[in-house]
Amino acid sequence: MKLPALTLNQKLAIVAVALGTLALFSVPHRGPVVTLDTRELAQIVEKEVDHVTPSELAAWIVQGRSDYRLIDLRAESDYATYHIPTAENVTVAALPEFPFLRNEKIVLYSDGGIHAAQAWMLMQAQGYRAVYTVLGGLEGWKDDVLYPVLPAQASSAERARFERAVALSRFFGGEPRAEGGAVAPAPMELPKLAAPVSSGAVSPVAPRKKKKEGC
Amino acid sequence: MAPFYKYGFFGDEMSLVLAFVLGTGFGFFLERAGFGSARKLAAQFYLYDMSVFKVMFTAIVTAMLGVTYLGWLGWLDLSLVYLVPTHLVPQIVGGLVLGVGFVIGGYCPGTSVAALATGRIDGFVYAFGIAAGTLVYAEVFPWIKGFVNSNEMGQVTLPEVFDLPWGLVAFAVVMIAVAGFSAATFIERRIGYRS
């Protein structure tokens, strides 16, 4: 028996149907299991490119940058008392289920550095690549941004840096301090939530800005 | 590994260079398919030449199968591919407006640029219309902003919306395409040019 001669279109249609049938069995999305390149992770930690400093973060907030999401990992009550402006509250337990996009830049912070670092590892294990922690966590934010300290014998460079820190501190409702002065450091009360935020109240989920992508 | 841009294989500048290369290639093949001519494009709407349907559906099937297999092989991380967020009703309305412009002007935005590049005057007029229309849209945007942003569905895909396996949707799209091509050929034979 001789097969009927096929036109080019018919041959192409057969190829398409064959590829489409094979595609039935495809699993194009990776599941929850990922392979971690431990050497790559170690290098990221070693090179310290896995965190942003509190001052950098403060500058981003002042500039109104929206290309990242700031996540407060502490309990809801702590978040309600004080959080870094623009932060969203997602506890560590809720983190694996939270619908982040895989290519979002995510900045994590907790009280100190430990919870954030652990959460960073969790996120890495889920295949999130652009995850950062705030160096020193909320404590670092207090020390560097809210209540910067002018050293007793400050050089001119240190003074210049302090001047810039003062402006940032005031913006976020903090209070700069001078070390070794007669005045004892004021009790470090956290600023009222509403005060430092320039753009209205902070909602738990910040409005998502449209990405400059696509056509 | 891919998308290359998301994995930092190249930066913004290089992505613009690559966009130029890819765009030039896109324009070249549009022209080769005959889509630099408004006659060919408008014929689609009178059903005597189904080239637009065939070329576009071929592109969809090719890209879909390519993405499916690359994702399956683990070479492409589909969760990193940007999708335009879906706003169902505004996008249907927008699609109809674009379709009306397509019939009247004889081009879609991409093919008008291809026509412009080959020196067609109607392509030039159309491209000018795109610029003017963009300007008008930007000016009236504050008034229609609420509608444009309504029906937000996020970055969704058909498998998610219908809660079906990815492979089944891919298979269905291929079958629809093949059936569509047969139907298109049939329609062309019935009411195509008799020259």
Q: What is the CATH superfamily label of the domain at 38-142 in chain A?
A: Rhodanese-like domain
Protein chains sharing the most extensive interface: A-B, 24 and 33 residues
Could you say which overall geometry of chain A the principal axes of the C-alpha atoms support? elongated
Order of strands side by side in the largest beta sheet of chain B?
A: 1-2
Strand order of the largest sheet of chain A: 1-5-4-2-3
Query: Over all CA atoms, what is the radius of gyration of chain B?
Result: 19 Å
Topology:
The complex is a heterodimer of chains A (215) and B (195).
Chain A: H1 8-23, H2 38-46, E1 51-52, H3 54-63, E2 69-72, H4 76-81, E3 88-89, E4 106-109, H5 114-125, E5 131-134, H6 137-146, E6 149-150, H7 156-171, E7 177-178
Parallel strand pairs in A: 1-5, 2-3, 2-4, 4-5, 6-7
Chain B: H1 12-32, H2 38-45, H3 51-72, E1 86-87, H4 88-105, H5 109-117, H6 121-148, E2 152-154, H7 158-162, H8 166-191
Antiparallel strand pairs in B: 1-2
Helix pairs in contact in B: 1-5, 2-4, 3-8, 5-6
Protein model, in words:
The complex is a heterodimer of chains A (215) and B (195). Chain A has helices at 8-23, 38-46, 54-63, 76-81, 114-125, 137-146, 156-171; strands spanning 51-52, 69-72, 88-89, 106-109, 131-134, 149-150, 177-178. By secondary structure, chain A is α/β, with parallel strands linked by helices. Among the domains of chain A are: 38-142, Rhodanese-like domain (Oxidized Rhodanese, domain 1, 3-Layer(aba) Sandwich); 147-178, no CATH class. In chain A, the strands form two sheets. In chain A, strands 1-5-4-2-3 form a five-stranded parallel β-sheet. A two-stranded parallel sheet of chain A has the order 6-7. In chain A, helix 7 links the parallel strand 6 (149-150) and strand 7. Chain A is elongated and about 100 Å long. Chain B has 195 residues and is mostly helical. Chain B has one domain. In chain B, 70% of the residues lie in helices and 3% in strands. Chain B has a two-stranded antiparallel sheet with strand order 1-2. The longest helix of chain B is centred in the last third of the chain and has 28 residues, at 121-148. Chain B is globular and about 45 Å long. The model of chain B has no long low-confidence stretch (mean pLDDT 88). Classes of the chains: A alpha/beta (215), B mainly alpha (195). At the A-B interface, helix 1 of A face helix 3 and helix 8 of B.
